[in-house]
Design a protein that fits this description.
Length: 200
């Protein structure tokens, strides 16, 4: 039993350390972004005698804050292994996107790479401002990851319709709805978008 707990703890430690490495955040900032106690997170990471593991509540908060999911098998996955066909996270929020962020934590910019929502007014090249802390409501545009059996993920952008994610496009390859199940992780909700000027 102790060995099982030890293995789970090590996987949780590896996952949290991979979040710190990918984001470049300090432990204190990660705790702040995830709304966790900085001292509790520090103790979890630094106490070699502890057998503590992360509870599901803390895991969910860390996933939401960092955008780095812990796979269902408990293995740390630093980045989705599959390609992000439809959207790509970008570092530069830009002036308009920065204004939409309004100082909130857990807000990222993603660049649209697909026609999946062209009929909803989102076209390739648009910058989507995505809040990872919001719960999606019907009709919201969301970023989601779809995992296959190997744990590889494809990142998509769709409209949230309760039990399904749907496209708004004339592209027949993208029209099929996606049923939301345990293999689908919603990463965040689009709170606005920006488009570069296109000179006539």
């Amino acid at each position: 039993m102790f060995r099982v707990v030890e293995n789970v703890r090590q996987k949780h430690l590896d996952w949290v350390n991979s979040i710190l490495s990918l984001t470049g955040w300090s432990q204190h900032r990660l705790a702040k972004e995830a709304d966790l106690s900085p001292s509790a997170l520090n103790k979890f990471l630094k106490d070699p005698t502890s057998s503590r593991t992360l509870n599901s509540f803390s895991i969910e908060k860390l996933e939401r804050a960092s955008g780095v999911p812990l796979t269902r098998g408990g293995n740390a996955m630093a980045e989705p292994k599959g390609p992000s066909y439809e959207v790509e996270r970008i570092d530069d929020l830009g002036i308009m996107a920065q204004a939409l962020k309004q100082g909130r934590n857990g807000v990222d910019a993603w660049q649209m790479k697909t026609r999946a929502l062209e009929l909803a007014g989102y076209i390739p090249g648009d910058t989507l401002v995505v809040d990872q802390g919001l719960t999606p409501q019907l009709g919201d545009v969301v970023i989601a990851q779809i995992y296959d059996r190997n744990g590889d993920a494809e990142t998509v952008v769709r409209i949230f319709e309760g039990s399904f994610l749907i496209a708004a496009t004339t592209d027949p390859a993208l029209i099929s709805p996606i049923f939301i199940n345990k293999d689908v992780l919603i990463r965040g909700v689009c709170i606005g978008s920006a488009r570069n000027r296109r000179a006539a």
